[in-house]
Amino acid sequence: MLRRVVIPAVLLLLLTACSADTEGTATVDPTLGDGTSAPTTPAPTTSAPTTPAPTTEPSSATTEAEDGTPSATPTDDVPATPTTTPDPTPDEPATVADPGSVDLVLEEIARLSAPIAMAVRPGDDTLWVAERAGRVVPVQPDGTVGEAILDISGDTTTGSERGLLGLTWSADGDTLYLSYTDTDGANVLAAVPVSDGVLRADDRRALLTVPQPASNHNGGDLQLGPDGYLWWALGDGGAADDRFGNGQRPDTLLGAMLRIDPDGGDPYGIPADNPWAEGGEGAPEVWAYGLRNPWRFAFDTVTDTVWIADVGQNSVEEIDRVGVAEAGLNYGWPHREGDEPFDGGQADGPTVEPVHTYTHGRGCSITGGRVYRGNDLDALRGAYLYTDFCDGRIFALVVDADGSVVEDVDTGMSLSAPVAFGEGADGALYVLSLDGPIHEVTAR
Ligand SMILES: [Ca+2]
């Protein structure tokens, strides 16, 4: 079932050997080998970082206030929403994380222009970082910044919540997948092939384009699942109050987690175990629905779970944790905002209750993180680190074998404008600030 592929040694040699071959490629240096062998900029750089704080953060309450009326006030006579209790814990590790016992600190390793997402390529330590305006830049774990391998800035815009939003590599390292909004504001999932060790930017092609009726709530996170499929999170279409009515509709690709097989057809295939693979009331690509703006999500391969952080509107931020095999679930929006009723309606069937929430007394827009599985910070192993775009403090959430929260620890680490976490090849965790810095999570 697992389709992780270790990049063959001979290919690694090929990549190195081809590091000077750039003919027939895109305008930026697309040579993958540069990321590992030809550092060009010591880090942290001395150049001033751009500070392109977005006109709106990834869908905050402030955003909603500008373009939508506040939601209906929950009333006491709303029937209790039936809920499901996911059971995503086949092999929880025996040791429980104890993040409060370690003195954690953020170490700035590099600065880029509005770094917004990070991915690693199998067999390679390089941190491939997406800049919001459209470049993909290699950063070494020691902070060395290389030349961009791709620049799609002519094909995207950065207003509102738009831009290059996500990236991930195929398991064999032969394809780079991108998630961005195009010049019409639509969400695009595109593939860029590697051949002869060189990323062929000119051969980029869109696999899936999903029109977006408003400029916000684009979601856009893109991850290669442990099942070898591409997982793509899209917001509800934007404005406020789920104005376009996508949240409770599994037959639309908005307000949903999508799951496709990039190698299973042209331009892609549908995994046979997608809940509506054969049609019916849902779209074949949809894995889950009832989401507002799942800006960031991540897999934990030890527990075979997916953690989804869904940005709230007026008052509640939400973290969901379910098994990778638990397809077809309804996460509640807009009938539920986090663990509270929202629009007065009720779903036809059960909805997933969050594993954890916090209110806007603490933040305004959750930035979902990752479960730490590295080797250096024993006390952190198994904890889910996350933050909030407005608040900036990083918390470590610990759950037990049943998925119930044990504790939610303020780690003492904080930063401005956090938009994403990334995981290095060795399991190290990184936090990206839209203000420029890339930080590694370390201990004093
Ligand atoms: Ca929800």
Describe what you observe in this structure:
This protein has one domain: TolB, C-terminal domain (Neuraminidase, 6 Propeller), CATH 2.120.10. The two termini are 40 Å apart. It has helices at 9-17, 34-37, 61-67; strands at residues 83-84, 104-111, 115-120, 127-131, 135-139, 150-151, 164-169, 175-181, 187-195, 198-199, 205-210, 222-224, 230-234, 256-260, 286-289, 296-300, 305-310, 316-323, 329-330, 336-337, 340-341, 351-352, 356-359, 366-371, 384-388, 393-399, 405-414, 418-423, 429-433, 437-443. It has 444 residues and is mainly β. The radius of gyration is 21 Å and the shape is globular. The protein binds calcium ion. Calcium ion binds next to loops. Pfam families: GSDH. Residues 36-98 have a biased composition (Low complexity).
What's the number of structural domains? Answer: 1
From the 3D coordinates, which CATH architecture would you assign?
Answer: 6 Propeller
**What percent strand?**
25-35%
Structural class assignment: mainly beta
Backbone shape: globular
Over all CA atoms, what is the radius of gyration? 21 Å
Helix coverage percent: under 10%
End-to-end C-alpha gap? 40 Å
Q: What name does the CATH topology carry?
A: Neuraminidase
- Sheet with most strands: 5 strands, antiparallel
Distinct small molecules: calcium ion
The residue-averaged pLDDT reads 85
Give the C-level CATH assignment. Mainly Beta
How many runs of DSSP E, i.e. beta strands? 30
CATH homologous superfamily? TolB, C-terminal domain
- Uncertain residue ranges: 1-30, 34-58, 60-82, 89-94
Tally the helices: 3
Protein name: Glucose/Sorbosone dehydrogenase domain-containing protein
Domain Glucose/Sorbosone dehydrogenase: 113-433
InterPro entries: 6-blade_b-propeller_TolB-like, Glc/Sorbosone_DH, Quinoprot_gluc/sorb_DH_b-prop
Biased composition (Low complexity): 36-98
